[in-house]
Amino acid sequence: MAGNRMICSTNSVDYISIRKAMCNGARTVDELIKMSGVCTTCDGCKDELDKILSSVCGCKNVSLKGVVDAFKNGADTVEKVGNITGAGTDCERCKALIANIIELGR
Prior knowledge:
Blueprint: E1 6-8, E2 13-14, H1 15-23, H2 29-36, H3 43-54, E3 55-57, E4 62-63, H4 64-72, H5 78-85, H6 95-104
Antiparallel strand pairs: 1-2, 3-4
Helix pairs in contact: 1-2, 1-6, 4-5
């Protein structure tokens, strides 16, 4: 599980702010720029945004692709995604993101 830390030092955007943007539908760097205010030029943005965007559950090391694939294969609830991938079964912090992925289908 990732703790809260500063990701974008230029605009003072922390990890939790980026995850909240993802819970509200951000799936690309451009969407993160609009929704969280990351700059994409500082070292934190350059080094971490792609990794953060590709991950859903740090506790179980579950990727966005893994959750999307589970959804496409019929897991239409957070619990079903958790049963297949393990995401959301430990600390439960990623459940809001999983629910958004199901809602948007991406």
